[in-house]
Each structure stands twice: as C-alpha cells, then as structure tokens.
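step: validate -> pass
step: tokenize input -> pass
step: predict -> running
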Amino acid sequence: MKLLICDDHKIVREGLRQILLQIEEVSSIIEASNGSEVCAILKERAIDIVILDISLPDKNGLEVLQIVKEKWPSTNVLMLSMHPQEQYAIRALKLGAAGYLTKDTASDELLMAVKKISAGGKYISQSLAESMALQFKHKAQQHKHELLSQREFEIMIQLAKGKSLLEIGNILCISAKTVSTYRGRIMAKMELNKNTELAIYCIENDLI
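step: predict -> pass
step: emit ->
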C-alpha cells in the first residue's frame, strides 16, 4: 500500500507517518505540504490513498480533492480536518472522498479508516455519521450555506477569513472581477450585505 500524506505542518505529517507505519501492508509513505505538491507527486507515481488536510496554504483541500478525483479517479482520498462541521464532510463525500476524519481522531480510528478504504470501503466516524443523519432528518431546517455551489462555498470561506478579492483570485487562479461576481451571488443566496456579516455567520456555524 502506497500512501501520500498532505499537511502543511511537518510535525503533523511526522505524527501521521508514525501511526500509519503500524499497518503491515504499507510499503511507502510520501509527504507533501500543499496541493501543488500532491498533484506533482501523482503525475510521477501511483498512490493508493492520499490523506489530505482541508486547510492548505495554496489551495483549499476540497479543491485539491476535486482535482485528484478528476485526474486520478482510482486514487482514494481520506480527508483529515480540524473542522467537525458535517457540511465539510458532506461536500467531501460528494466530491468523491473515500472518508473523512477530524484531527482529534484517535490513532486506532485512523488505522481503521485506512484499512477499510484500502479494502474498497468508505469511512466516517460514528459521531459524524450520527450528526449527518440528524441533519438529513431535519432537512427542512437547511442552513443557507448549503445552497451554495462548491466554488461559492470556497469563496465564502475566504471572504469570511478577511481575504481581499485579489487575494482570493490569486488563490483560486481566477480574476478579481470573477470573484466579485461570485461574491454577489453568495450575498444574495445568504441574504447578507457585508463581509463582516458573512464572517459572523461562518464563525457561528463552525465553518472557520
């Protein structure tokens, strides 16, 4: 089993490496610190499972996930995030992730997830599954951000973090004018007027 760990913190990568080396089937573990490195590595060699952080310095992890599944569909991706909010998990699974774990997950659960994914299954924690089930049960009480497309969701998060239109454009490789157009759509769907209101909403809903 060939694994690729992507996280921008070296100490996190090292910790994950030590845990994953407990799996006998693991033959190699490669490390990457950003989304661009992930793509560069996948161009050069076959990887069975990518363990991918959502918060990366160059691209949003969900965007990297989308690229990986489009270009290397046979590569499994396990998302690892500091965000327990089920919306991230739902979006990740819709984009093709094989699993979703939060960073406070116990090492045993990480090992269980990797083994299940390598056997062709999917994995989410029991607590997250219960939270998602509860959300579907109360679908009528849908949050406004669930109305956003994936690109709109990514831009909303960046706006909420205080990024300028130009900065967001550079991150997503689109023009500031295009970002402004997306911002208008986001504000209309969210029924908000200011970036500060957007930031408050994201904080209250554990999105940042």
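step: describe -> The chain has a mean pLDDT of 88.
step: cleanup -> pass
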